[in-house]
Amino acid sequence: MYRTHTCGELRIEQVGQEVTLAGWIQTVRKFGSINFVDLRDRYGITQLLFSESLNARLDEQPLGREFVIQATGVVTERSSKNKNIPTGDIEITVSDFKILNAAKTPPFTIQDDTDGGDELRMKYRFLDLRRNSVRKNLELRYQVGRAARNYLHTAGFLDVETPFLINSTPEGARDFLVPSRMNPNQFYGLPQSPQTFKQLLMVSGYDRYYQIVKCFRDEDLRADRQPEFTQIDCEMSFVEQEDILNTFEDMLKHIFKEIKGIEFNEPFPRMTFDDAMEFYGNDKPDIRFDMKLVNLTGTVQGKGFKVFDEAELVVAINAKGCSEYTRKQLDELTDWVKRPQIGMSGLIYARYNTDGSIKSSVDKFFDEEQLKLWAQACKAEPGDLMLVLAGKEERTRKAASELRLEMGERLGLRNKNEFKPLWVIDFPLFEYSEEDNRWVARHHPFTSPKPEHIALMDDVSQYAKIKANAYDIVLNGTEIGGGSIRIFQRDLQQKMFAALGMSKEEAEHKFGFLMGAFEYGAPPHGGIAFGFDRLCSLLGGSESIRDFIAFPKNNSGRDVMLDAPSEIDQKQLDELRIKLVRE
Amino acid sequence: MYRTHTCGELRIEQVGQEVTLAGWIQTVRKFGSINFVDLRDRYGITQLLFSESLNARLDEQPLGREFVIQATGVVTERSSKNKNIPTGDIEITVSDFKILNAAKTPPFTIQDDTDGGDELRMKYRFLDLRRNSVRKNLELRYQVGRAARNYLHTAGFLDVETPFLINSTPEGARDFLVPSRMNPNQFYGLPQSPQTFKQLLMVSGYDRYYQIVKCFRDEDLRADRQPEFTQIDCEMSFVEQEDILNTFEDMLKHIFKEIKGIEFNEPFPRMTFDDAMEFYGNDKPDIRFDMKLVNLTGTVQGKGFKVFDEAELVVAINAKGCSEYTRKQLDELTDWVKRPQIGMSGLIYARYNTDGSIKSSVDKFFDEEQLKLWAQACKAEPGDLMLVLAGKEERTRKAASELRLEMGERLGLRNKNEFKPLWVIDFPLFEYSEEDNRWVARHHPFTSPKPEHIALMDDVSQYAKIKANAYDIVLNGTEIGGGSIRIFQRDLQQKMFAALGMSKEEAEHKFGFLMGAFEYGAPPHGGIAFGFDRLCSLLGGSESIRDFIAFPKNNSGRDVMLDAPSEIDQKQLDELRIKLVRE
């Protein structure tokens, strides 16, 4: 036995006991002739006081930071107590010790505020993981998973494992592929999600399925996207959208209560996709603050201001209490909307001064009476600042959405300790892909159109109007999950594939097994999948999912600690009957 | 809302209530003018009685097996109750119904004893999964996983997800490989186990880690091996072998209690590897029955019987109570040991008759006095039958082990409802691979030799004597888990890689990250991994792990339902910069 207790559990009650602890040396310091060590493990820190009789041994075998030692001694009451840590009332008067493993000086400090840069910490991820802040993230991740499992268990869901070596059926994102040695020239694909399998489980009568499962997408990585990521994947039979929303709203409430101690007594608000786009400019509104987008197009056009008159959309937000913004602040905001990521040509503003006057950057075209109409539309009051964008509809709406979030940030309205979930519902079934020059599934091809819109599928000119029984759950402006009621009839599924431009043969080749299954008694069903990494990062108050993944990859899909991926042996290539194409 | 209740929950108390059920039609039958349907879902079966007023509609829309329907009606007490099912006291007098989805006639019956062959059931796995017996297996799997998680949670283990896209480091089994598009000509490997990651987590101070996780091995598939399989993977810091054995013995006891209602009040027995080989002829003894192997070499040699005199090993088992075996039975057994899988040239027997006489098949060489010595060694008594094998040591021991199991089977001593766990300990560190013409790690290269044997690592002639701190947990003759105390010092790990014939460069290239980690304060640690599929199949009383996997692959690594793996598009190959080698 290496230890009788952990470094986090001894208290004043144990004074007088002989104990053995083991752990890492956080600090070594000497007061006069007495050596003190802070010994650390996952559970806490305990102070060790080395008896003077050990000084000779300590001179011979000096202790250093991150050494792993075992120490035996008596629990003693401290004269100067440390109220900041639970073990702060006691220390161990060490009578014997053993160095279990020495340590080189770590390349960065093992502390919450480390001096290590991103690259270095990723290379030495096993040291980065020692930091309290990182460990707390992974502990939170474990607790979130456990809370989800407990809720789903009580609600009658079964965790069923689905396979990882499946077929490649690229629809949307790119699959990772795995050459099969036993089936030469054939490949498995790694799943982007267990979508078809969970639907098959519904056909099999499993009624309520879940899995916390790795998924894979071979996409170019944007910041904070990982080639492998984890979903809480769920599916239910004999349900309508309402049943699913209620079930998983309850799951999230359970998680919030368990993890954050927050109780939601009201139902989560719901918003249609159309409203989200109109009032927030995007499909994942951050509703921690109001500042809705106001369409001023009708109000402002025809007054001779070319920028407005030529615009497809003129949209304003009301920055409450910002009428005193300085010229410099406004210039800064103007530069901000002109950045290529936002891409606007300028920003128009109108101050509603506290004295009741309104002054705008376009006074030449709009008199105070006109501006009062703006204020009315924006529900602006004296003290407020209206910010107006104009241009092509899509870009302008997107820019207004970004500007709203930026202003929310600047005004401190996006408190990461405040949680505002929102269901966004009634998504369009299709969206037009300019890139592929065809209609694609907005959610995925298994999503059911609203029954009353099925007839519109016969007429491509109506595609934009078709709504789906699809929904997203949004938390603080981030989508943390989404799902839909599924198609469960072969005919409709076939129609859907055809609408997406798939030939009958292609559809049969790729998804014949699923459509076949629908012919043997498929129940109505639907489900949802949560982005587990993202959910954890939001609950942990972080922007970055990497902080919540034990061994994440960088933006090139590399694990810099392992130096993976890497070249393989010719023998391995030969066995797989593949050849490299070198450039 | 599709239903007010499931098909498993209505009882006599609900008589008079109007309810709506939804599910699959198990059977339709007509008594006189009344139609009866057994409606099935995951939770049970409820009988529906269709009011005569519905007969016209039923004629129009006939119901068939596996149709999915929704039915509304009043709960009624049955006149003839069915005591075999929990809902057998009631039926629903249906006033309205709706066909939610029709069904083609399934290719096999959806019953415990189905008429479908293996191939057909795998092709239509979504129908096979509907069968009660299969669903019960997957429900048991879920319960076993949940029991393990609950135990490990209480014991302070953290579930930490480790990556799937890692480096290929073939050591032993072959890796599945994943070409990287973003890092051309480089490959990820899928993990054969999270071994190095869990060790890194120990270096990171996580103290107690677990994961129920998919692992991958690209090996030629023997019956009942799957290319992807699931492990309960665990690791602990600051532990010795004893701590691990105790912790996971408790976990198994918890699982047995939760799943089977069996309480083990005694500690699991432990046996050294050497004893297992000597007394059972293999390293995973089935101790549900005794019938130990008895070494007769010394007893029988030098009596002029060439078969014995030339043998490396003469070994007997005592088949208790079998002295009356007929000539035919003995011939059958002789044929059995002569099969190529067993490979012996013959079987010698000696009957200890109930009258006290002993007769053997080698009476020419051994008189009754001699045979009494055999009986003494075998602890045979009147009524017993001694079966003797002789030949090359390894083959003969293996054959005796197989014969013992076969006799146990024939004598009904291998009851699948009796559970006899056993720890096998003190495994050799190395074993000699004739194939590779070198010493290989018996467990894996991270396993620690027993400290007192480390010195032997300097002398290759001593390798066979080196024991490891490695252990297996065996249940009813099947290994369900194994692990070891790990090496945690860079020097020793380097020595181990060298002993396995790895150059310093190769070791550094493949496992530099781990040896590097050992230099920054690695704690003593060890762990274990359980074969989850196998554990579930044993608890479920089945020989086959496939019955406990939702979507298993066949012996060619194919999913016959999906028809995976499959050929991929040229575009995909081009993106990965690989070419196929066609034959």
From TrEMBL, chains A, B:
Binding site for ATP: 217-219, 226, 479, 531-534
GO molecular function, one term: nucleic acid binding
GO cellular-component term (any): cytoplasm
Domain of life: Bacteria
Region (Aspartate): 195-198
UniProt EC number: 6.1.1.12
Keyword field: Aminoacyl-tRNA synthetase, ATP-binding, Cytoplasm, Ligase, Nucleotide-binding, Protein biosynthesis
Binding-site positions, L-aspartate: 171, 217, 443, 486
Leading EC class: ligase
Residue ranges annotated for the Aminoacyl-transfer RNA synthetases class-II family profile domain, each copy included: 138-552
Keyword Methyltransferase on entry: no
One GO term of the biological process aspect: aspartyl-tRNA aminoacylation
Catalytic activity: tRNA(Asp) + L-aspartate + ATP = L-aspartyl-tRNA(Asp) + AMP + diphosphate
UniProt subcellular location: Cytoplasm
Keyword ATP-binding carried by entry: yes
Biological function: Catalyzes the attachment of L-aspartate to tRNA(Asp) in a two-step reaction: L-aspartate is first activated by ATP to form Asp-AMP and then transferred to the acceptor end of tRNA(Asp).
Subunit structure: Homodimer.
Family: Belongs to the class-II aminoacyl-tRNA synthetase family. Type 1 subfamily.
NCBIfam families, per database record: aspS_bact (TIGR00459), PRK00476.1 (NF001750)
Protein name: Aspartate--tRNA ligase
Lineage: Bacteria, Pseudomonadati, Bacteroidota, Chitinophagia, Chitinophagales
Gene (name only): aspS
